[in-house]
């Protein structure tokens, strides 16, 4: 006869996951850096049909926690299975799929965003985060990043880090939150990058159309192909572009827009793009 598993003997992250799953909240493990575990060998190069960003998976019967939010589960036997258990042993945090639990998380990233929420949103269950707060509502909706400065919506096709139950009573999803994704503000206009001219006034070799086009296309591909650590990939890519093309004046608004567009397609906000670009310029002394 199979003996029941004593949850008290499970690793801490796994105990938390099993407790959440028992209450109907789909869970998944996160690696260091708050990123999900990558595809298993059977899904190498997205052989199962999933997109590289793992946010829109194809048909897949992976034994392990592949494809981020789509891998989230409430089944204890799956959570305790060998591949999942090994992932939990390496996990640095527990994540959950709000949309799968019929919830929406309003992710407030700073004090200004919190002040806006207190003035405009109904009180609800609140969870402190590293830089701000998560406000939880009953009801699912489409997820979206950067719906206003410092505010992201995490519900369907997204995951949120579990940071505890928080305080307060969860309210129903209000229309004002739903409206944020309908009337999403446009990204701020990109400013022209001003860079020093070449010493001696010589012709810039980067102005060769094919050379510059190839460099920008490779940068776009690097960002688009990132399956994890998107923030770091965007910054490193911006740094590489600026180190090669940033001192000769050949970068135009059109080139920068292409890079920002690729980054925002991976879920980066306009603010994150601007910060990464500014930090890269500062590091290079531009």
What report would you give on this structure?
The longest helix has 16 residues, at 209-224. The chain is α+β, with helices and mostly antiparallel strands. It is built from nine helices and ten strands.
Supply the number of helical segments: 9
User: What is the first-to-last residue Cα distance?
Assistant: 70 Å
Major sheet characteristics: 6 strands, mixed
Q: Could you list the spans in which at least 5 consecutive residues all have pLDDT below 50?
A: 1-7, 51-58, 183-202
Number of strands: 10
List the helices and strands and how they pair.
Elements: H1 12-22, E1 27-31, E2 35-36, H2 76-79, H3 82-90, E3 93-96, E4 103-108, H4 111-120, E5 125-128, E6 133-138, E7 144-148, E8 151-154, E9 160-161, E10 171-172, H5 175-182, H6 209-224, H7 230-245, H8 253-265, H9 270-284
Parallel strand pairs: 6-10
Antiparallel strand pairs: 1-2, 1-3, 3-9, 4-6, 4-8, 5-6, 7-8
Task: Kindly summarize this structure in a few lines.
The protein has 286 residues and is α+β, with helices and mostly antiparallel strands. The chain has nine helices and ten strands.
């Amino acid at each position: 006869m199979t003996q029941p598993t004593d949850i008290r003997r499970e690793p801490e992250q796994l105990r938390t996951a099993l407790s959440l799953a028992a209450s109907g909240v789909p869970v998944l493990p996160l690696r260091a850096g708050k990123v999900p575990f990558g595809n298993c060998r059977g899904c190498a190069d997205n052989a199962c049909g999933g997109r590289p960003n793992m946010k829109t998976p194809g048909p897949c019967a992976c034994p392990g926690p592949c494809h981020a939010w789509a891998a989230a589960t409430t089944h204890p036997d799956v959570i305790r299975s060998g591949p999942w258990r090994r992932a939990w042993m390496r996990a640095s945090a527990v994540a959950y799929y709000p949309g799968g639990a019929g919830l929406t998380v309003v992710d407030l990233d700073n004090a200004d965003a919190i002040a806006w929420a207190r003035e405009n949103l109904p009180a609800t269950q609140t969870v402190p985060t590293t830089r701000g707060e998560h406000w939880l509502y009953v009801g699912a909706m489409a997820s979206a990043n950067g719906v206003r400065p410092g505010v992201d919506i995490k519900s369907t096709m997204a995951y949120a880090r579990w940071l505890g139950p928080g305080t307060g009573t969860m309210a129903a999803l209000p229309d004002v939150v739903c409206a944020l994704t309908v009337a999403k503000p446009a990204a701020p206009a990109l400013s022209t990058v001003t860079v020093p001219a070449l010493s001696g006034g010589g012709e810039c070799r980067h102005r060769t159309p094919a050379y510059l086009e190839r460099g920008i296309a490779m940068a776009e591909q690097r960002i688009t192909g990132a399956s994890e650590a998107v923030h770091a990939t965007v910054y490193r890519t911006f740094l590489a572009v600026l180190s090669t093309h940033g001192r000769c004046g050949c970068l135009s608004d059109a080139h920068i827009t292409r890079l920002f567009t690729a980054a925002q397609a991976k879920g980066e906000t306009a603010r994150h793009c601007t910060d990464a670009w500014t930090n890269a310029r500062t590091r290079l002394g531009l």
